[in-house]
Amino acid sequence: MGLRRMPRVYLIRHGETEWSLNGELAVTGTTDIPLTANGERMVGEMGPRMVGQDKLIHPEQVRHIFVSPRQRAQRTAQLMFAENPLPNCVVTTDPEVAEWDYGKYEGMLTKDIRKEKPNWDIWTDGCPPGETPGESPEQMTARVDHVIARIREIHAQATAESNSPEKVEHSDVIIFSHGHFTRSFIARWCDLPITAGYHFAADAGGLAVLGYQHSSLKEPSLLGLNWYTEEQIRGK
């Protein structure tokens, strides 16, 4: 018998928005902008590719979904499961999985931030207060770590309840969130400092898969990165 299929976390970044199209990297956190028409179409195409009985995300395996309060994440979640509803699944709109709070820098271009603060790097400098409080790397680390602790409790409970020797049943978690949250989550899931998030890609509509090695909840791992992005669906 092979290794037991362990619980997973699927991290899905919202689809295309007007700001995510901006090549100058305007930072979008609390601003509640919608998907573009193209973003809606692409997410609608992505769902059937990744969700289904014989697909990466098996509907009956999903135990809990966390969704950012922002409409771009909410709509992405709605479109993703339009053709494959999830039975016996708890869905939570949760501010803890919202994007990094950019504070004063909300809506600014990276180049303009660096005119004010040369060599600014969100991973080490964070964001000062503005209309919202902003978040430092330490604050973001604490928030992400709390989400991870909650998910590991879900995974531990599912593992304790499952009688199957082949897989931990009804144990997967999905998070619909944003770019910097996703990259921060990957780093912290793998017990890396949040600054390591710089090295992970999270394109619009992209999917990251996290889980465990060697059938052990003590060995959290990154299993897949930046799958099913809009660019891949376009065939670029």
UniProtKB/TrEMBL annotation:
CDD domains: HP_PGM_like. Substrate binds at residues 13-22, 28-29, 72, 99-102. PANTHER family: BROAD-SPECIFICITY PHOSPHATASE YOR283W-RELATED, SEDOHEPTULOSE 1,7-BISPHOSPHATASE. One of its GO terms (biological process) is ribose phosphate biosynthetic process. The active site is at H14 (tele-phosphohistidine intermediate), E99 (proton donor/acceptor). GO terms for molecular function: sedoheptulose-bisphosphatase activity. It comes from the Eukaryota. InterPro entries: His_Pase_superF_clade-1, His_PPase_superfam, PGM_Phosphatase. Gene3D superfamilies: Phosphoglycerate mutase-like (3.40.50.1240). This is Phosphoglycerate mutase.
